[in-house]
Write a structure and sequence with these properties.
By secondary structure, the protein is mainly alpha-helical. The chain folds into two domains: 70 residues, lambda repressor-like DNA-binding domains (434 Repressor (Amino-terminal Domain)); 42 residues.
C-alpha cells in the first residue's frame, strides 16, 4: 500500500468516526459545521475523507461533537500485537461458531488468571 493511499484510508476512517458520533448525537452536518466554525460543505468533505482539516479545525470539530479528539483517531495495533491478532484470526478461521465460542471462553479465563498473577505471564 502506498503512503498516500494509507493516508487517504486514515482520513476516511476519521471521517467515518466523525459521522458515527454525529449521528449518535442526532446532529446534522450543518449543525456540527456551525459549532466548529466551518462551512457545512467543507465538513461534509471531511466526513467523506475527501478533504483534510487542519489540526485546529480537527480539534474544533471534535469539540463540536463533544468528543475527545483522540477518540476520533483510528486505533492501530502495535507491530507485535498485530501479529498476535493475525495468528489468532488464522487459528479461529477454520472453526465452527460453537468451537469459536469455546475458544473465546478459554481466552477470557486465561485473561482472568493472568490478571491475578501478572508476573507469571510470558510474552
Amino acid at each position: 500500500m502506498s503512503f498516500n493511499r494509507g493516508l487517504d484510508n486514515f482520513y476516511r476512517e476519521i471521517g467515518g468516526r466523525m459521522r458515527s458520533v454525529r449521528e449518535a448525537l442526532r446532529l446534522t452536518q450543518a449543525q456540527v459545521a456551525e459549532a466548529a466554525g466551518i462551512d457545512a460543505s467543507f465538513y461534509g468533505q471531511i466526513e467523506r475523507g475527501a478533504n483534510t482539516p487542519s489540526l485546529k479545525t480537527f480539534v474544533d470539530i471534535a469539540y463540536a461533537l463533544k468528543a475527545d479528539p483522540a477518540d476520533l483517531l483510528p486505533r492501530r495495533a502495535a507491530g507485535r500485537e498485530r501479529l498476535y491478532e493475525g495468528a489468532v484470526g488464522k487459528l479461529l478461521s477454520g472453526l465452527d461458531p460453537k468451537r469459536k465460542a469455546l475458544v473465546l471462553g478459554l481466552v477470557k479465563d486465561i485473561g482472568r488468571l493472568i490478571r491475578i498473577a501478572p508476573d507469571t505471564a510470558q510474552p
